[in-house]
Amino acid sequence: MANVLAELVSQLNSGALRVIDLTQPLSAQTPLLPLPPQWPNTPQFRLWEISRYDDRGPAWYWNGFETGEHTGTHFDAPIHWVSGKDLPENSVDKINPRKFVGPACVVDVSADVQRDPNFLLTVERVKQWERQHGRIPAGAWFLLRTLWSERTDPEQYINLQKDGPHTPGFVKECSEFLAKERDVLGVGVETVGTDAGQAATFDPPFPNHYIMHGSGKFGLAGLCNLDQLPPVGAVVIAAPLKIVNGSGSPLRAIALTP
Ligand code: MN
User: Fold this and answer.
1) Fewest C-beta in 10 Å: which of 91, 160, 218, 229?
2) Is the full-model pTM beyond 0.85?
3) How do residues 3-15 score in pLDDT, each as one tens digit?
4) How far is CA 191 from CA 10, 51, 169, 229, in A?
5) Ligand 1 centroid to 234 CA: how many Å?
6) Alpha-carbon distance 75 to 177, whole Å?
């Protein structure tokens, strides 16, 4: 088995394997999910300088920061949702780190989303993908490639209208299929959250969160560069901060790809 790791390093060094950054920049400009007005929102990312080679610290530069757990490119743990609140290993500090590494299955729905920003992935569409690329293996990340991360203007990224945000997601049957019939690690998306923008109005509300986290599955939100991944064959490494009892955390998600 040591040979596998030596071969991995050799292929990374030669460029035969590439490391793709799936992470968006994290700053005070990072767009946040606006909740309906009856609920408090998450704080913006905030950074402040402690010292920068000056009289506050002559030889060192460092910052403090404040962030919500669900800001920017981030990981959702099962405890994030009421349906996952009593599951074992449900917070970021308790998840088995083996689950931070898994193969990626990438479904490209960017053309559908260009036609309809409220596009929802269906079971039929996943089965169509499987006929082309093979069955989704247990323990895979299921990644929804929408090109949504190309919307660099925060207003277009959130796409807030009078009736709330309009962004793509999943029908509840699709989340059920992926969690229960395919036993995925979770789903990853390019949008601000793993449910569609209009999902507060769905039954149940935010069905992907409800079903995935109730099944002990995870979420990755705010990903980018999914267009650089093949439909199958890449490996995602997504390890959240070890926040005690944390419901999620910003993270640096990367993929190894041929
Ligand atoms: Mn989240």
Assistant:
1) 160
2) yes
3) 999 999 999 999 9
4) 34, 35, 9, 17
5) 23
6) 21
